[in-house]
């Protein structure tokens, strides 16, 4: 018998379909992924993840460079939209663009601005996630309740910032759900959000163990 046909769909059920995956209902994007209190059985952030595959590790490499590039492209595209709306020439010596040129360039620049903004927020979520992980590791390795509390609080704060950036990235990525770009950005933001929530729970669990 021939092998089953390969499908790009990974999840099943109702939800927001982005880039071949169902990421849950759109309303779930606004819910914090760390609703219940952490307990002493929460995993240690130093042990919670098995060995990561090469693709996931590579996705975090150069994150600051991608963050800066996406911010620059989003700002440049936004400036082009402003120029198109105001009807200003593209250069100092260029003639005033026609209405058709302004509409065409404005729409393309606006779409590019949204795409780069989605990529920017997804990378920003990764930065906050890694920050929350470092704070959680510091909390779990600290000796004494008073020493563990500050990094644990910082880890939870960074998890909140991660969730905010991830929500923005996922909402913008939903506009590009027909493409692999939208799916990749949404997945990057979604994973950062979940990992940061796990870091915050682990850090809080470390302080609870020291209270016992």
Question: How would you describe the overall organization of this protein?
Answer:
The chain has 212 residues and is an all-alpha fold. The protein is built from five helices and two strands, in the order E-E-H-H-H-H-H. Helix 3 (99-141) runs parallel beside helix 5 and helix 4 packs antiparallel against helix 5 (180-211). The chain is elongated, with a radius of gyration of 21 Å.
Helix content: 55-70%
How much beta, percentage-wise?
A: under 5%
Average pLDDT reading: 77
> Assembly type of the shown chains?
single chain
Radius of gyration, in angstroms, nearest whole number: 21 Å
The total strand number stands at 2
Based on CA inertia axes, which overall geometry fits?
elongated
The sequence of SSEs as H and E is EEHHHHH
Number of helices: 5
Straight-line N-to-C gap: 59 Å
Largest sheet: 2 strands, antiparallel
- Report low-confidence residues grouped into runs of 5 or more: 1-10, 12-20, 22-43
Give me the side-by-side strand order of the main sheet: 1-2
Structural class label: mainly alpha
Feature tags:
212 residues, mainly alpha, two-stranded antiparallel sheet, 2 strands, 2% strand, elongated, disordered N terminus
